Amino acid sequence: MDAGIRTVGIDALSVDATPADDLPAHRILCGAHAVIAENLTGLDPLLDAQTAGEPIEVSLLPLRLPAADGAPVRAVARVG
User: Fold this and answer.
1) CA of 17: how far to CAs of 23, 72, 76, in Å?
2) Pairing state of beta strands 35-37 and 7-9?
3) What is the pTM for the complete model shown?
4) What's the rounded mean pLDDT across residues 41-61?
5) What are the residues whose beta carbons fall under 8 Å from the beta carbon of 36, sequence distance 6 or more?
């Protein structure tokens, strides 16, 4: 069964152009119940692993912030 894309990770400040009054990518992704992880670093080893066809498992561990619609995360990945 194909689950589709549930998480989008990016090494930029936002999935939308910044500064922006409108956030079309956020609206589309959040409307599809996707998780957005922005401003990630150290992604080169993951791109190399992806190119080599190695499996990659990523975990995003957010801080609990009551009544917030987002939070900083500790992002970790396992290759192989």
Assistant:
1) 8, 20, 26
2) parallel
3) 0.78
4) 94
5) 7, 8, 10, 15, 26, 29, 30
